[in-house]
Amino acid sequence: MVSLLINNSLSTRQRYLLIMILIVAFLLRLFYALGQDHLVVYADAGGDSRWYLANGYALFTGFDNGILPLPGGSELPIGLKNLPTPPLYLLLLGFWQALLAPDAAILAIRLLQVVLATATIYLAFRLGRMVGDTRAGLLTAAILAISPVFVLEPAQIATETVYIFLLAAALTIYVENVSASSLRYPIRSVAVTGFLLGLATLTRAVLLLFPLGLVLHLLLVHGWRRGLRWSVILLLVYSAVVGSWTVYNLARWDRFVIGGEGFAAFFYIGATDAGWQGGAAVDEGLNTDLPAESNDQQEIYRDQAEVIISSDPLGYVTRRVRELASAYLLPHGTLLFSGESLRNLVQNWLRDDRSLSGLITVTQADAFWPKLLLYVFHFTGIFAGLIGMWLTRERWQVTLSLMGFILYTTLIHLLLTALPRYIFPTELFWWVFAGVTLVSLSRFFKKDELREI
C-alpha cells in the first residue's frame, strides 16, 4: 500500500511546504490531545465514549453478560451477544485498555488518533492534487491542518478519526490508481480499496452499501468488460473483510449480522421526532417490553417505524428533510464547547434586538469565537466545495467517486437519523473541492497565473 501512496514528483520547495503543513497539523492535534483529562471519559454517562470503552474492553478480553466496573467507580452492563456496532474501533480501544492502565490507555488511543488524523491531512493533499493541482492539494492540506474541528476530533473517543482515515486512504488509492488517466496497479489498487473500505465498514456500518457506487463508477469509466472484472475483485475483497464479523457472530452467538445491527434502531429514531437521546431512551420510547434477543429487537424497531410512517407519510418526509438540513447547518464540534447555541443566540438577536450593543453581548457569550470559527470553516468548505465540483466537472472520472461519497452519506441519513457528527466525514471531501475553488479565486484576483511554488 505504501508504494501506491508515495510519489516523488513534488519539487523540493513543495515537499518542504507539505512537510511543514504536516508538522503543524501534528503539533496542533498533539497539544490539544495532551491537554485533556484522560480519565473523565469513563465518568461521562451522557456520551458514547464510555460505552465504546467498556464494550471495547469486554470484546477484546472476552468479558460478557455481566456488570463491568469502570475507573472512577462507575459501572456498565455488558451483553456482547446484542452488540449493535461493528467491532474494529471497539477492538482498538480494548487492546490499549488491556495493555495499559486506564489513563495511559486513553493517552495511547489519543496519540494513535493524532497520527491517523495527520496522515489524513496528507491523504487530503493527494486527493486535492488529483482533483485540481499541486497548489490546490497544498491549500486543502493547509486549511485542514488548522481547521478547528479537525484539530479537536482526534482527542475524542469516537469512531470518526479512524473511519475518516480508512475512507480517505481507500479513496486516495482508488482515485490515483484506477481513474481513467492513471491506471497504475489497477488490480492491486482495486483489491486494496476493497480491503480498506471493508475495515471502514467494520468501524462504521453506515458505509455498507457505498462500494456498490464504486462498482457503478468502474462500469461508467472502464466499460463493462474491464469494469465488471475489477468490480468483482473489489466486492470479493470487501465482502471477505466485512463477512469476517458475520462469520464470528454466527460461530459464537448464532446471530446473523452484516456490518452492524443498528440500522433498524436508527431507522426508527429517524421516523420519530425525538432525535437521538441515548439507547435507553430509544428503547423506552417504544412503549413495549423488548425481548432479550437482538433480532426481535430489530424487528420491533422496524415495525414501530412502519406504523409511524404509514400514519403520517408527509410528516415523516418533513421530519427527515428538517433533521438532515439541521445536521448540515450545525457544524460538528460546537457541542464540545459550553454555553448556549451560537445559532440560537444569533436568531434571538435578529428576532428581538438587532442593536449593536446586543450584537456585542452576543460576541461575549461563552465560547463565541471558537464556535464562530467552526461555523466559518464549515460553511466555507461546503459553499466553496460546491463551486469546486462545478469547476472540475470535466474531470468527472476522478471526482465522481468523491462526490458519490458525499451524496451517499447525505441520502443514507435522509433515511436514517441525521446528526452533525454523522455528516462530518463528508467535510474532508468538501474541502478537497473547496481547495480548487480558492486557488481559482486567487488566480482571478491576481489577474494572471501564480508562479509555481
In short, what is this structure?
The chain is mostly helical.
Write the layout of secondary structure elements.
Blueprint: H1 2-5, H2 12-34, H3 40-43, H4 49-61, E1 66-69, E2 75-78, H5 88-99, H6 102-131, H7 134-146, H8 148-152, H9 160-178, H10 186-201, H11 210-253, H12 263-271, H13 279-285, H14 294-311, H15 313-329, H16 342-352, H17 356-363, H18 368-391, H19 396-415, H20 420-423, H21 427-446
Helix pairs in contact: 2-6, 2-7, 4-5, 5-6, 6-7, 6-9, 6-21, 7-21, 9-10, 10-11, 11-19, 12-14, 14-15, 15-19, 18-21
Could you name the ranges where pLDDT drops below 50 across 5 or more consecutive residues? 1-6, 278-295
Provide the structure class. mainly alpha
Q: Rounded to an integer, what's the Rg over CA atoms?
A: 23 Å
Major sheet description? 2 strands, antiparallel
Molecular shape = globular
How much of the residues is beta strand, in percent?
under 5%
Q: How are strands sequenced across the largest beta sheet?
A: 1-2
Q: How far do the termini sit from each other?
A: 28 Å
Order of helices and strands: HHHHEEHHHHHHHHHHHHHHHHH
Query: What percent of the residues sit in helical stretches (DSSP H or I)?
Result: over 70%
Mean pLDDT: 85
Strand count: 2
Please tally the helical runs, counting DSSP H or I stretches of 4 or more residues. Answer: 21
Describe the structure.
The protein is mainly α. It is built from 21 helices and two strands. The protein has helices spanning 2-5, 12-34, 40-43, 49-61, 88-99, 102-131, 134-146, 148-152, 160-178, 186-201, 210-253, 263-271, 279-285, 294-311, 313-329, 342-352, 356-363, 368-391, 396-415, 420-423, 427-446; strands spanning 66-69, 75-78. A two-stranded antiparallel ribbon has the order 1-2. A hairpin with a 5-residue loop joins strand 1 (66-69) and strand 2 (75-78). Helix 6 (102-131) runs antiparallel to helix 7 and helix 9 (160-178) packs antiparallel against helix 10 (186-201). It is globular and about 65 Å long. Mean pLDDT is 85; it is low at 1-6 and 278-295.
